[in-house]
Amino acid sequence: MTLNGHNKHTKLARPSLGNFGRNEWAILGAPCTVIKLLADDVLRALAPDYKGAYADTTHADDMILPPGRLNAGAMLEYTDQIQYSQLSYATPLSPVQLKQHFYQADIVLVNGNHQQAKAQVLVLDENRKASLQKRVSQLTNVELILVSDNTNEVFDFIQDALPHWRDIPMLKVDDAQGIVTFFKSKLIQNLPKLNALVLAGGKSERMGFDKTAIKWHDKEQRYYVADMLRRHCRDVYISCRAGQVAEIDGAYPTLVDTFTDLGPYGAILSAFRSEPDSAWLVVATDLPLLDDITIQHLIALRNPSAMTTAYAGGADGLPEPLIAIWEPKSYPQLLAFLGQGYSCPRKVLINSDTSLVPPANPDALSNVNTPDELDRIKRQLHQKIATDE
Fold first, then answer.
1. Is the model's pLDDT at 218 over the cut of 90?
2. What is the pTM of this model?
3. How far apart are CA 22 and CA 15, in angstroms?
4. CATH number of 24-57+92-189: 1.20.120.330, 1.20.120.420, 3.90.1150.10, 3.40.50.300?
């Protein structure tokens, strides 16, 4: 901090990450072999629905020379192993680099004998009692206790370290189904909250006037969309440029673009900058035929394990980025693309893990950017009203 209480750096909302990811557990108190087998069982059981990852350290007696060209002085080696890809680094990865590699994982299990995580799974094993006692300081957030067959009680030093140990779920170490159920319930419990973002910051240059203010349904479209989304999301924001805030009805919270001159891409990044742990249902205001069924359908088919859930639109079936659910894991991906000179949301979706959903009503995805399109949709709406009457 500098003089006069002035902060030198902008204060940013930081995502709730541990050493590796959002949902991470270090397993400690058991031999490494037991930990690895336990991690195998859990990750295999969760694999159909969740992306899992594992972190460990090689034992000192297993140390070998650096692989491949690293031994010749290279700093990095990438190998396409056909069935999997392998990256080998010559130097240790920094905490930031580790998070970058693990950000797509829904769950990270860690060998707690060598690495730490923000939550722990504690194994009580009489044969590892002395070793566990040395690691008591690592028990900062124990969420599950597993008991081995050779252990009949919670060790005294554990009771001292965890005064509320009776409130912690306790299972037998060989209760595979119970352990998997525990992790599933935690992942469901930690599902990112879904916010909504109404994109109203465009300049409507092709239309010639502010298309967010068109009254397709007896109110300005930006408010009509926001009211619709309020029925499905707890927090709804209207995305806008700084100069637009004064013209927006105060009953509707705004979220100002902080990544300027990037269009919708900047609006999405600004939303994540504001709340990096939330998922964002992003909806454009140039969709006059949008309805509740279309929103409900997308939310019902949300895939939190994917980076994004989006409608496959048009004859080409390409993802529609501006009526899509962007998960928190998409934030670093968006920043990475921006760092390489890309600011097209659709390009990000095409080249990322996107869960595509067939639209319940393809017409609801029709957008309006020009006066000709406006006239066409007006006629379509009038015909629908006449038919309904």
1. no
2. 0.90
3. 8
4. 3.40.50.300
